[in-house]
Predict the structure of Bifunctional 2',3'-cyclic-nucleotide 2'-phosphodiesterase/3'-nucleotidase.
Amino acid sequence: MPIQLSRRTFLASSAGFVALHPFSARAQANQAHLRLMETTDLHVHVFPYDYYADKPIDTVGLARTASLIDGVRAESTNALLLDNGDFLQGNPMGDYIAYERGMPDGAMHPVIEAMNTLGFDAATLGNHEFNYGLPFLMNSVAGAAFPVVSANVATQLGSGPTEDETLVPPYVILERSLTDGAGEAHPIRIGVIGFVPPQIMNWDRQHLEGRVEARDIVAAARAWVPRMKAEGADIVVALSHSGIGEAEWTEGMENASVPLAAVDGIDAVLTGHHHRVFPGPDYEGTPGVDAAAGTIAGKPAVMAGFWGSHMGLVDLLLERADGAWRIVSHESEARPIYLRGEDRSITPTVESDPEVLASVEQEHQETLDYVRRAVGKSDAPLHSYFALVADDPSVQIVSNAQTWYIEQMMAGTEHAALPILSAAAPFKAGGRAGADYYTDVKAGDIAIKNVADLYLYPNTVRAVRITGAEVREWLERSAGIFNQITPGEADQDLLNPDFPSYNFDVIDGVTYQFDLSGPSKYDSDGNLANPDANRVKNLTFDGAPIDPAQEFIVATNNYRAGGGGNFPGASPETTVFEAPDTNRDVIVRYIVEHGTVSPRADANWSFAPLEGTTVLFETGPLGTRYADQVQGVEIEPLGAAQDGFFRYRIAL
């Protein structure tokens, strides 16, 4: 039997006059407008609140997106609400539930409670759903009043994808009743299938190895979609928790939405994972993608930003003939919950939905108590304003804690005699996230919210055993964040905007310089681009040039050791220790153990001199408070830059 409209949907459609979408307004008899609404990468952001800064904000929150949902439903005759994954992890509320309150059988996760309140029709799993382990995941989604699907994660592999025993159902066929332009109701069967990057097997190896297997996204789609059609799916919607990447399919792709869209039988693709907006300029020029029309491989598609920043909309005008539906026209849009002015001011376009806020009010208050606890003191400020141009205190404390922990873990093992290095990267360093996206913790008490701000992800500690030659290559990979600089020229842009800061690993325990006069050896994805390039100079250990054959233990995290970022030497094969503890927990324990910590940067890396050469970079405006404290580099403030940033000059 077709499922009837929910009370919430009915109320939204009858709450007063709202202009109908043109597809609804002009649909004829045997034509119907179906609107697909997408949320993606919510990362537990229900309240419009920044728990790290401990203040309300207008740029995030499912409670804000919810207000869009009611209006969007009212604009269309028929609508589905779908989530594209990464909903269980990503902010302190997620950590509070996972590490403090827990998810025993029968408990309700707050983000699931909020989604139930909104009447989601279906959802898929994202890679971060696996961060807290399978029991937590399964107990969380057990409370969902909507199906959660994923076609390429199996508890038992069969002879082919359709013979797998999948962790959750691979797809669902939603039976609905569409109202056509003449007011007549017709049945439709809408297939919804989900996919997650197979890299989860590396990223969360400790939770998944021996418990599940992940198949290639496109291979799974090619197997399952024909079965959905055979079961009577009139249209098939792919929930692709996978970014928009290369057009040509290769086995095991992380960002496979373009070849996925090309699979026969898929009619629309709701994508995510990249934390970007589509349609829009982010994907202009991408093969197989029309960034203006909102199509991938000619199919309608959308990506709705992240943290509830947008509502993704795919509008389909369907026509019924001979008992079957076909798409005759389509449009895509990502509708924001706020507008950003030229002066970087934020103007919300909607207010929070009180019903959604009420559904998680208790957990919100408990999270505030959780993040405000003091765990120790720092005798120096912790900030990341200059983390991409000089050794940095926010990265230093992470490295210090990792080294402290791995020293204990290696004691008494076959690796105990090897020197320990530590690799860490800045997570909050501006970029696309804006001029306020920096760590900034004053000297004094350090609370859990500050530790979460230092280390955004619930990664677990890993240690790899590599050679001095591999240490050098690891640093060559990091050096890709810098543009090639022409010696003797003034005011060149220093940083490559396409290189994410979380892939700029600083390795403590060695000293080194970056010579930017040559090209990067590796591109932004970690592929070998210039085999003969050599940016890493004067690499020393214990006061002497590093021995390429000497072995080291390098403390890092499960993402990097699992191959994340494609760093030479970092792989499951070189991993010698897998910790049960998260990097955040290790930082907290390090602070508690020491009481007062001194996270001052030790300036173990710098730029090789280039006489008569200057470069420019931008950082958050509040960095002016610390500019004169930066070690190992001469920085000259220049003034305000675009989008709220502040510009500096460095004399190389």
